[in-house]
Amino acid sequence: MKHCLICNTAIEPFIDFGDMPLGNGFLLPEQFAGEYRFPMQVGFCSTCGMVQLLDQPDRERMFHDNYAFFSGTSRYMALHFKAFAHHVMTDYLSGGDPFVVEMGSNDGIMLQNFAAAGVRHLGVEPSKNVAQVAMDKGINTVTEFFGADLARRIVAEHGPADAFLAANVMCHIPYIHSIAEGISILLKPDGIVMFEDPYLGEVVEKTSYDQIYDEHTFLFAVASVSYLFEQYGLEVIDLEPQTTHGGSMRYVIAPQGIRPVSPRVAAQQEKERGLGLHLPDTYEHFRQNCESSRDRLMTLLTDLKARGKRVVGYGATSKSTTITNYCGITPELVEFISDTTPIKQGKYSPGAHIPVRPYEEFVRCYPDYALLFAWNHAQEIMDKETAFRAAGGKWIVYVPQVAVLD
Asked: Whole-structure pTM over 0.85, yes or no?
């Protein structure tokens, strides 16, 4: 029996993915024998509504000097974060000399927009290699983990923040009470918090179980986010659904009673109840859907192998680690995974040990089928890969259901 990280209620897993490697733990053959794994089980807390991993690796194992994810490699995400930053500057930074803090600022893909506008800013990024990319662009960055202690030091050095931002980061942090406390220390009395993460409702509706991996401690919904932040004198004042990462929610949070609450908040909470996100039976049904999706994908890949067809993975994503290991996908079924990230090339995928090769190998000799691991960037990829389809190539997708796209 484990206890909820938000309210300490005793909870049990509703799904067990087995022993999983690190989602971004790409490795060399000599590292196979010592590869780290952890028990990846997911539970639902009926008290606060939070869906969460019951165990997670130490943060230093996941976020370190060789972290293999750089936000700036996606043109689409660069445009997304430019719009995000513009929204904050236009709608929430009305005072003189505003100060913005971003947690998990990665390579500076969002803060570079504030820097260009002359806005005081600070990125908090614990992975030194990606933080260095940001600093090389002139973006003020500290390589630490955010929490209450760091918040006090930031206030002492820079003053309180007008805005605290995070994108695809808040859900990574099991010690989230320290984050919420740090925000309450750091924020001005009329400041705002804006963060976005994959949305639980989308994961349940689409059976996108690959959103569950070592870095994603939580799958947020409005109810659980509200429960957490209300303990620190903060409330959700607005919501902005996003298409990024296969369906995300952007939460706008402020000190209680300071700003008006949008009717979108109550409307989304009502929708969540309609989806049954507060009911244990919903997650039992989700487990069954995950198992069915896994079985259909393996049947398809096994059949293609028997027919002598070449299948190559597209995008060595963190999410692909869940798919390959939960489904049991091997190099015999997927020849290699094509990826444009140099730090991953020449290595092997976590757990499944499928070779990761440069994108040029995908183009040099197109496979019969491409298994789209980076499905959350499907539109950007489809627009780019017209030559693959023109050559007769077909896409395999598994969200929202397993299918072959001609």
From this structure: yes
